[in-house]
Amino acid sequence: MQKEGGPLQVNQVRLGAVLSYVSMGLSTLISLIYTPIMLGRLGETEYGVYGAVGPIISYLLLLSMGLGSAYIRYYSQAKVAKDRREMAKLNGMFLVTLSLLGLVLLALGFFLAAHPQMVFGTKWAPEELALGAKLLRMCIVMATMSAPFVGAYAWIMLLGRNGVITNFLSGLSMTLIPYAVTGVLCVVVSLCGGAFDVKGLAVTVLAVLGESFFYFSSATFVAFITGNAFTMPPLYALLHFLAVLLDWLISSFAQGFIFGFSTYYTGVVEWLSPTVYLVNNVRCARQYVEVQQTFPDGTPYTSRLLTSADLESFWLIGVYALVGLALAALALILYRRRRSETAGDVVAVGWLRPVFRYGVAGLCALLGGQFLYSLFWYGFQQGEYYDTLPMVVCLLAAGAIGYYGASMLLAKAFKVFRGSWKGLGIVLAGCALVCCVLHFDLLGVADRVPEASQIQTLEIRIADNTYTLTPEKDADLLEQVRALHQTVVADESYVREMEARRSSTWSEDETPNTAYTGLNLTYTLKSGTRIDRWYSLLITRDRLAQPETYDYLLDQFVNSDTVKARRLHLDDDFWTVSGGSLYIDTRGEGYELGSREGDAILKAVGRDLTAGNWGDYDWFSGDSGSSYAMDLGLDFESADKERYDWISVHVTPAMTETVDCLERLGLVTRADLVTYRQLYPEDYGADGSSIWQEVPHTGENAVVYTEDTTSAMVSPA
Questions:
Q1: Burial (CB count <10 Å: 0-12, 13-18, 19+), residue 476
Q2: Quick one: pLDDT at residue 391?
Q3: Is the Cα dihedral 266, 269, 271, 272 positive or negative?
Q4: CA–CA dist 532, 522 (Å, integer)
Q5: First to last CA, the chain
Q6: Concatenated DSSP letters for 142-194?
Q7: What are the residue ranges spanned by the domains of the chain?
Q8: pTM of full prediction above 0.90
């Protein structure tokens, strides 16, 4: 029998302390990342309700009274003493106690949810109380289905060598049985009270069981490929996030070589990062109904009530559960072939040691190489793209550090340099090969322009505007953009030369006959693939008159009547004017516009467009202050009421229809109709350009079109 305070107990205490600190750090990091995301997705009111529910759940969980910690302590003692009868007794008692505790928590939580005034007070609005009650019911179900102390038991099971199958099954049962028992209790409660959809709840329970099995099996696999407890957490993280990390690293690295390439993340191998893939593809589909209700004072209002919820792509959890089964079987095979002397090694499986060594070298090369390049060479770079030879040197330096660092971890010694030149040569060859493939674009990425038959949507951002095109509705415009893209690709050497010249002069190098503009293209193909391209293009007045240049094609697209109409969402049933705003500089006053006022103004701008009074986008004009001193914005709402857009209209004296409309609505007077240059003459030079403007903004009517769920920010024209 192991003496109390012996090596095993000491190691367990150390491991527990380390895992506790790791858990605390991860919890803090997740909270910092998760909070702004939740606030942005939910809104202030909904997030406030969510924040109020959290402490209530925490207080209810105090009913556990340290059950998990007590169980781990006594089970560890019984395991050291090899007292199987005591271990079985503890397991049975733990399951019964946890089940009863879950039932008590459910009953108490549902009671509080039925009387939300007792919890949240009487100052909340009715819809907030209803939302709080729903969140409380959902959170109490999830809380009773979570048993965080079970994970510690599973780790203890996996650290031993004896009875591996028994330990695996024991740990798995201790992980899944509480979820299963609690799930059954939830189904019973839902049947009795009718609080939840039984089908939806059953799907949720199965999803929790499937995910728990996969994560437990993957953790077991990691535990068996390493003999070091401290290596388990980083290897487990790599198993779930390595594919996404490599995708991001390689994509960002390729941007420095491939012309126009602007993809930061492709998602091609996202399925190899299970956590990310499940989060992005398994979503909760909710359905609501609008209900007319009244406040206590009799004021009517409309609220949305949740009627049903279902998991989309639920089958993916089943797929990963099968993957978990395969990982568990592979872990058993590796365990039986693992030699005892590898205990304590970072990598305990022989054939995985070279994979670990060169994998670490590759990651260090990609991460550290770009860092070293930015530190020592970026200032000497000509243009937007990397210089190949200096980058190879930086990659090799960072890769060598990673290679020898991994070798030291594997050998558990510092003397690993003798006879290692072959491995270092492989690292050098790999770095050089990657850089050559990207530099010469051997995969043909820069030249790729998708065929129209392959395109589902094409989003083009140019001249302070964004347009989304589809083959069904915008076949002609789509072909225009494809021709423009092909022309830019054919002019790669010219574009690179102009970028390098612009970078080397440390100035924008713009004259009345030249201007720079950014062109962003995003293709979404029918296959699901996304292609992003971005170009910094020099526009010259001479090339603007030459039909074979991209300058000419850009101008033809931006200043076509069809695209002008798209700026205003004219003849577009998808968007309707929901209101707007008007700020008049002469009076320092602002107005909120209603939907009727906004619609009238939009139609007036449309008439100015038809009459040719809403001018073309001028690539070379500066901010001459020729617009009236007012800020006019119009808000749009999509037909499904899920998307919103905002445009800014710069009103000029030539826009007579718009000015007359503003006067008829009583929004402006003749005294307000002065230009910015007239109102602020001190801000403009003799040539009419703004003295505050380093890079001239172009156009008289720049607006932004977007189909995003958030409003677009608009640069002044």
A1: exposed
A2: 93
A3: negative
A4: 5
A5: 82
A6: HHHH--HHHHHHHHHHHH--TTHHHHHHHHHHHHHHHHHHHHHHHHHHHHHH-
A7: 1-196, 350-439, 452-558, 564-683
A8: no
Distance of CA 100 to the CA centre of its chain: 40
Return d(Cα 656, Cα 472) in angstroms, integer.
36
* Residues facing residue 466 across a β-bridge: 461
Give me the DSSP letters along 274-341: HHHHHHHH-EEEEEEEEEEEE-TTS-EEEEEEEEEEEEETTHHHHHHHHHHHHHHHHHHHHHHHS-GG
Contact 244, 266 (CB under 8 A): no
DSSP annotation of 648: E
- Cβ count within 10 A of residue 194: 9
Show the tokens assigned to 592: 């909120």
The set of residues, in sequence order, having a beta carbon less than 8 Å from that of 637 and lying 6+ positions away, is 575, 576, 578, 643, 644
Distance (Å, rounded) from C-alpha 703 to C-alpha 717?
A: 8
What is the rounded CA–CA span in Å between residue 238 and residue 231? 11
Q: What is the pLDDT of residues 218-231, one digit of tens each?
A: 888 888 888 676 77
Secondary structure in 3-state letters for 97-111: HHHHHHHHHHHHHHH
pLDDT at 287 over 80: no
User: What letter represents residue 555's amino acid?
Assistant: D
Helices and strands in the chain: count of H runs, count of E runs: 23, 10
Tokens of 223: 């535990």
The shares of helix, strand and coil residues in the chain, as percent rounded to the nearest 5, are 60, 15, 30
Contact yes or no for 578/636 (Cβ under 8 A):
yes
Q: Judge contact between 477 and 557, C-beta under 8 A.
A: yes
Residue owning tokens 């650290």: 159
Q: Which two tokens stand for residue 196?
A: 């939840």
Dump the DSSP string for 628-646. Answer: BSEEEEEEEEETTSS-EEE
Q: Long-range contacts of range 607-613, CB-CB < 8 Å, 24 or more positions apart?
A: 607/657, 608/654, 608/655, 608/656, 608/657, 608/658, 609/561, 609/564, 609/565, 609/568, 609/570, 611/657, 613/654, 613/655, 613/656, 613/657
Comparing CA positions, the residue from 290, 293, 319, 324 lying closest to residue 307 is: 290
Query: What's the CA gap between 456 and 471, in Å, rounded?
Result: 7
Please, which pLDDT band fits residue 4 given cuts at 50, 70 and 90? very low
Q: How far apart are CA 145 and CA 162, in angstroms?
A: 30
- Say how far apart CA 488 and CA 533 lie, in whole Å: 11
CB 259 within 8 A of CB 492: yes
Any idea of the CA torsion for 493, 499, 505, 510, to the nearest 10 degrees? 110
Percent of the chain residues past pLDDT 90, beyond the cut = 26
Angle at 299 (CA atoms; ends 295, 300), nearest 5 degrees: 90
Bridging pattern class, strands 514-525 and 530-540:
antiparallel
pLDDT the model gives residue 643: 76
Q: How far apart are CA 256 and CA 56, in angstroms?
A: 51
Which pLDDT score is estimated for 156? 42
The neighbour count for residue 432, using CB atoms within 10 Å, is 15
Question: What phi and psi, each to the nearest 5 degrees, are found at residue 466?
Answer: -125, 130
DSSP for residue 690: B
Report residue 348 as tokens.
Answer: 């305990």
Q: How many residues does the chain have?
A: 717
Confidence of residue 135 (pLDDT cuts 50, 70, 90): confident
